[in-house]
Amino acid sequence: MRVLIDADGCPVVDIAIAHARANGIAIWLICDTAHVFEREGARTVTVAKGADSADFALVNLIEPNDIVVTQDYGLAAMVLARRGKVLNQNGMRYTENNIDSLLLARHTARKIRMGGGRIKGPAKRTREQDEAFSQELDRLLVEVSTAMNTQSI
Prior knowledge:
single chain; alpha/beta; Rossmann fold; six-stranded mixed β-sheet; globular
């Protein structure tokens, strides 16, 4: 198990690194050349700048039970297909039960924007969102570790 972060624009990189380190789990930051990250205790994979280049690189690295942090619904769907676990920066898990409705909402919002409409952007990040992410990441790390230990017995 590893924690892989779609690091381009991710506000919880440092929180995720701290949790992974505390649990002895490898953490990888995936970014393109427009958003180069270097953090102690994390492996950084930098790919060429391009539409979704970091996303495709991340998907190609996924192994079952890896945990991915992203806010990208399309990437989340690909990770789920590779049997990874996915969490967004606010602590919401992407699952087989919610990914289709999230992708539909993304598609609908894009149609509105393409038609000249406007969609309200995200509100300023709060401490509560960081805490929710932190708690859910802890739960997910324990859940995946327990499942992996059960499988190896």
